[in-house]
Amino acid sequence: xNRNRQLVVQKFGGSSLATxxxxxNVAERVCERREQGVDIVVCVSAMGDTTDELLGLxxxxxxxxxxxxxxxxxxxxxxxxxxxxxxxxxxxGLGHDAISLSGRxxxxxxxxxxxxxxxxxxxxxxxxxxxxxxxxxxVAGFQGLTLADDTTTLGRGASDLTAVAIxxxxxxxxxxxxxxxxxxxxxxxxxxxxxxxxxHIGYEEMLEMASLGAKMNxxxxxxxxxxxxxxxxxxxxxxxxxxxxxxxxxxxxxxxEIQRSITSVVTERSVARVTLHGIEDRPGIAASxxxxxxxxxxxxxxxxxxxxxxxxxxxxxxxxxxxxxRVAEIxxxxxxxxxxxxxxxxxxxxxxxxxxGMTNSPGYAARMFRALANAGVNIEMITTSEIRIxxxxxxxxxxxxxxxxHSEFELETV
Length: 414
Ligand code: ASP
Ligand code: MG
Fold this sequence. Notes:
The protein is α/β, with parallel strands linked by helices. It folds into two domains: 7-258, Acetylglutamate kinase-like (Carbamate kinase, 3-Layer(aba) Sandwich), CATH 3.40.1160; 265-413, 2-Layer Sandwich (VC0802-like). Helix content is 33%, strand content 25%. The relative contact order is 0.10. The model has no long low-confidence stretch (mean pLDDT 94).
């Protein structure tokens, strides 16, 4: 292929494709880019809420049973087939040559885990051949094929993953993710009005933010990091948005000074805490508490265990508020765990700072805690990783907490 030309993968999410007009608008943007001499693979999600609507239909029609995972995947993969073929038609309508491909036609093979399949391999031959013929290639996101020839889907929101995987397989120069916001922000602008779009961020920080709930699919960031796919997160609707570039600064030779020590404040509302008082301090106790929760598909977040006295200790952990009831039920009938009292508390929230700059420098935690103290915010629990410090605070103090930390680390000044 003529590698003097730029090769770009552009992914558009459901809200960017929700109506006929929006779909046409996206086709126009793709064609404009094409006219600048760029080779393009477009990766699409299903239009609007199509996936949810199809899942609703399946649930209503399956009676008392839950719908078969195989049939469900066959069904919901059609949402992306519709938007891909319509996109192909719209691009051709604008006078450019285009071809749409299903996940299978794009060479995407997965394991057999219906509903959240993992990509096993991609054979890029067909995509490359179509590009070579001068076509814009439109790939249906979110889907693949097992070795047994069954259609699978990759998990909710996983069209991003398709885009990154295709980018890696054809060695694209850039994977652009178009969404309804201008990029990744230094904080949630609804809580911190002077939050800014981050211009550059490393994979590691982005991954940490994604797992804290920033609106990105963590698996796609992971894959981008492993295969070193540079990404740009930007807006479908605001053409002036510069977006957020995700890459390895080291690889790009970017001026290190533009990388800040703290990149962002990430928040999560709706956290609840469970405390078990007076549990036995012996090997296996934590496993006994957590195993039934894991079996129920409930993920536990911040876990804190106290120093014991008289062989007894306390353990607290947080879960999403919507799980609190079930966690309390499951734990109270858990015969492997004795305790004197089970306490629950909802109405909590989580606020974190993320940044690779904190790895080797002490003092970030102290600054964060001081900022919270000055804002009158009480810290309920604390946990850290190499590049993150997280505090659990009261929900109605979340905005005050986020603002105080955002300004302490001067994130509003780009
Ligand atoms: N349409 C799928 C979903 O809604 C995949 C995606 O949007 O990325 O989860
Ligand atoms: Mg969707």
